[in-house]
Amino acid sequence: MTDNAKNVPVLMYHHVHPLKSPLNVQPDVFERQLAALKGAGYRSLTIEQFADYLNGASVPDKSVLITFDDGYLNNYTYAYPLLKKYGMTGVLFVVTGWVGEGEPRPTMANADPADLPAAFVHEESKHLVASGETDKVILRWSELQEMDASGVMQIHSHTHTHTRWDKVASSREEKIEKISEELALCRGLIAQRLNKQDDFICWPQGYFDEDYKQAARDLGFRYFFTTDAYGFNRQHGDAENIYRIAVSNRSGKWLLNRLFYARDTLAGRLYGKFKKWKKMRREARKRASQAHS
């Protein structure tokens, strides 16, 4: 394995639980993906190693960063034990306003399947959060503290309420005020409950504009994660536009193939350009359809 990776792909997950559903990777599939990564010689970086790489440090050629969004309980129940089993690390971007109190719940590493918390698909999870039943689907501070202290799953910021203020604020001034408040609350709770300064923010739904970015800069955030898959995270690259690849409920072989096209090679660059072009065409057709409806 050589040093000086040309780029470091960042993988994006949401749920890891047994139900086959959108935005979920089933535990047996997730395990096969981790086994494939390990077997192919990939190394998962800590978020600090990834930040150092963006700032010019060397990392092994086959390096990835594994991330999870929102803070779902199943990330503790299933993903955390599997990462530990395979000697890999992950990063969990948590919506701090959803996090509950109480004792840690069982995981697949210490309980029978029948005794594990119930699994919910993404739409059901959103409904439970909206109705105030967050504890059924969202992590508790005790679980976040355990994972963060272990070093296996590092906890970082995903705002306080996951609200898209660009969509609901009545003015630009209100949008800036609200997103600044969100970021300050989130960063403050991470500092208070996990005893660390957080320089990393993952934008809800991947959306950001210059107002969002300036609010984050003003509070001390330095690294901004998006949901844009078609670019390369290079040494001395743009720390305010970190690309991530959404991982599907598909085989380890699929993931290795996807990582082949995520590498900063001619094939990877052509693949990214083609996928961006297809995405732009889909969005243009959608806008045209809406205009004529």
TrEMBL record:
Compartments it resides in: Secreted
GO cellular component: extracellular region
Listed InterPro entries: Glyco_hydro/deAcase_b/a-brl, NODB_dom, Polysacch_Deacetylase
Keyword Phosphoprotein among record annotations: no
Every NodB homology domain range: 62-293
One example GO MF annotation: hydrolase activity, acting on carbon-nitrogen (but not peptide) bonds
Signal peptide as annotated in the record: none
Primary location group: secreted
Keyword Signal recorded: yes
UniProt keyword terms in alphabetical order: Signal
Domain of life (superkingdom): Bacteria
An annotated GO BP: carbohydrate metabolic process
Classification via PANTHER family: POLY-BETA-1,6-N-ACETYL-D-GLUCOSAMINE N-DEACETYLASE, PTHR34216
Protein's name in the database: NodB homology domain-containing protein
Native source species: Advenella kashmirensis (strain DSM 17095 / LMG 22695 / WT001)
